[in-house]
Amino acid sequence: MTIDIFWQNFLAQANLPKDTTYYESSYFGVDGDMADSLLALVLSGQKRATASCLRAYEAEGSKQPQIGDYSIITDWHGTPHCVIQTTDITIIPFNEMTYDIAKREGEDDCLETWLDNHRYCFTLEGQELGFEFTEDMLVLFEDFQVVYQP
pTM here? Predict the structure, then answer.
């Protein structure tokens, strides 16, 4: 199913105006295995948040997500599986992250693994976008809820 058909099905089911837009259509993670594993966590309800490096938005010149935004979550191959809606945004320095916040991502059993995993992802992202990861860089932490899963 195409992204456009998936989106139109959501709008019809949610009784939203046909001109309602979505923030983005994407997957979570940096490779196929990670994307599909994180999608499974979203679909099971275990993953209710995501974290991104604030500098990435600046480097790409892209808009930051806002409370109320809809996004389509896909697998690695771009097949849509659900629509999420952003419910909260927290901006926090990487080195001030707490496990109470991080555990909402549903990926790690402790703060140390969350820090290690995100340090790795943010370092890769920085290399691709031309900035260097630092321990005090700002993280955009986005809470969401699944609002459509056919």
Answer: 0.92
